[in-house]
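hey so u asked for the seq, here:
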Amino acid sequence: MSTVEDAAVSPVLVLTGTYNHNMDSKGRINFPAKLRDQLGKSFVISRSLTQHCLMVHPVENWRDLERQLLSAKGPRAEMMSRRLFSSATEVTPDQQGRILIPAALRKFADLDTEDGIVIAGVGRKVEIWRESAWNALNLASEEEDDTELLNDFSL
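ran it, structure tokens below
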């Protein structure tokens, strides 16, 4: 399990790796064992607020996010809460390690059985993408000049 020591706090779980899978006709995907082990017995899946993909959070991280959103005030916080909470569902993988992606979430992320699915650990969460959308996103980001950002991180 990958963790990072956060100053003066307990280690933070860092989810990593990219996995290609297919979705079956019932809307199930085989969730990678490494990520299942890190996320725990069940986890929360919801729409992304910034991308055309799904987000998967460990339940503990999701509870932190809930607290933050519920304490925020104003119309923008209300809109964000509405979009996030209305799409969220807790899932538990079956004995074969598959999770069922609800139809509304499949529609939001444009997931289908024709195109592959990419499951990517991206730090504190996992993202689920339609493979063609993931490839397009990565191609576009490779064309950007990130030299300054890379230097900031000594990469």
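The two ends are 23 Å apart (CA to CA). The first strand starts at residue 3 and ends at 4.
lmk if thats what u needed
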